[in-house]
Amino acid sequence: MKTLSIHNPATGTLIRELPCDDAASISAKALAARSAQPAWAALPLAQRKDCIVRFRAAVVDELQALAATMTAETGKPISMSRNELNGLLGRIDFFLAEVDASTATQTVFHEGGMTEQIEHVPLGVVANISAWNYPWFVGCNVIIPALLTGNSVLYKPSEYATLTGLAIARLLHAAGVPLDVFVLCVGGAAVGTALQAQRIDGLFFTGSYATGAKIAQTLGPRMVKLQLELGGKDPTYVCDDADPAIAAASLADGAMYNTGQSCCSVERIYVHEKIFDAFVAAFLDTVRGFRVGDPMDDATYIGALTRSAQLDVLDAQVADAIAKGATLLTGGQRLPGNSYAPTVFTGVDHTMDLMVEESFGPVIGIQKVASDAEAVALMNDTRYGLTAGVFTPDEARARAVLAQVRAGSVYWNCCDRVSPRLPWSGYGDSGMGLTLSTYGIQTFTRPKAWHLRQA
Ligand code: NAD
């Protein structure tokens, strides 16, 4: 049997060896999930909600240990692991509060003997193939609303966050979700491929564009509902009337939080020439204060890169930027513990990979612009479109700029922010995903149309 070796990325030590799924076990799991789904869907919604309430309570009880597990397998600084778990509680609360109203049958017409209704029926069996960078967030954005709405879920966590996946499964099962309704699938790309070959009613994917595109090619002709939440190269523009120190502190955090490994990390910054120097000085001040170190240490801000292959990507972006004439202000090299020095460039432009390809690390380019129009053109010069932001005290100006930017989420005087109340989606190569908000509950259902004529 194949095994999955789980290493601590910061120390290189082997944490655990787990048996992997294969094509035969995935096929058996998918069949079991299909048999179990109708009974789960037939339960009153209140009973499914009770399971999720118990799951939430267990996350609270075990929060410290769950955070330590996530940090050990991903290298995420421990304070950020705790933040993620605490943030998860608010997301669960949102789903619990909104699921009844979002999925209640609506009577949309009633006249004479004719009634028209929309019923929200579960999709059936859904697969969730997930990423490692926020494993509780991105996993539960799918798992919780999918279960609440009566689906069974085949969950494949990233091979870099499988211990967290095991914890999610253990807590859901202990909370009363039947074993065959929430099913963990262990392994890497081969297990993800095996999942696509099953009879499934939806596939919800979070990960890279490259993998998302492969999945779309496979599943497109099979008419399986597909949601793909992919990468980004998210820009922020700092206007000439912004406070450079406030904008710099916020954007340095937005670029480097979670060691820069967020789908909505700030990945490009455009600053008006009038405040460029003041902004860069304040940005460097903040970045130089970021403590790099042991992810288990509470004081650590920059932890380990989860995948060591990303160090090669960062090295290549740094070398390319330098070769094309960019100015390296700080960082630019690997550090012990699979980490990377917080890295800041000026003198950058869009001929450089650093400004057009996802970095997914603590590396950022700051480009000078002369006008709002130039900033908008540069912000839109991307194949992605997940988030974008503007810093200015002038709301009308911010709205005018953001209205022209192709991005699923836009930010005024903030960045790197996700709210359970708002839909999470992207343009272009950021994919065709839609989670969170009431849309992110309804998306796990099919709107069934009832035409009812009284005899
Ligand atoms: P990845 O594409 O390498 O892997 C994602 C998942 O797909 C993993 O579980 C992996 O095992 C699986 N997989 C790999 N090849 C597969 C295949 N051929 N068929 C089926 N499954 C396969 O991505 P990653 O490194 O885990 O995540 C980082 C990426 O995710 C970044 O680009 C980031 O921006 C993106 N991301 C996006 C969001 C969002 O909400 N838009 C959130 C988090 C991360």
Note the main attributes of this structure.
five-stranded parallel β-sheet, globular, 455 residues, single chain, alpha/beta, binds nicotinamide-adenine-dinucleotide, seven-stranded mixed β-sheet
What would your notes on this structure say?
- The chain is built from 15 helices and 19 strands.
- With 455 residues, it is an alpha/beta fold.
- A seven-stranded mixed β-sheet has the order 12-15-16-11-10-17-18, with helices on both faces. A five-stranded parallel β-sheet has the order 7-6-5-8-9, sandwiched between helices. The protein has a three-stranded antiparallel β-sheet with strand order 3-4-19, with no helix packed on it.
- Helix 9 (244-256) links the parallel strand 10 (234-238) and strand 11 (266-272).
- Helix 2 (45-61) runs antiparallel to helix 4.
- The model has no long low-confidence stretch (mean pLDDT 98).
- Bound molecules: nicotinamide-adenine-dinucleotide.
- Residues 129-134, 138, 156, 158-159, 188-189, 192-193, 206-208, 211, 214-215, 229-232, 263, 358, 360, 386, 424, 433 line the site of nicotinamide-adenine-dinucleotide (NAD).
Describe the protein's topology.
Layout: E1 3-7, E2 14-19, H1 23-42, H2 45-61, H3 63-74, H4 78-103, E3 106-111, E4 114-122, E5 125-129, H5 135-148, E6 152-156, H6 162-174, E7 182-184, H7 189-196, E8 202-206, H8 209-219, E9 225-229, E10 234-238, H9 244-256, E11 266-272, H10 276-288, H11 309-323, E12 327-330, E13 334-335, E14 339-340, E15 343-346, H12 353-356, E16 363-369, H13 372-379, E17 387-391, H14 395-403, E18 409-412, H15 439-442, E19 445-453
Helix pairs in contact: 1-7, 2-4, 3-4, 3-6, 4-5, 9-10
This protein binds nicotinamide-adenine-dinucleotide (NAD).
Nicotinamide-adenine-dinucleotide (NAD) binds next to α7 and α8.
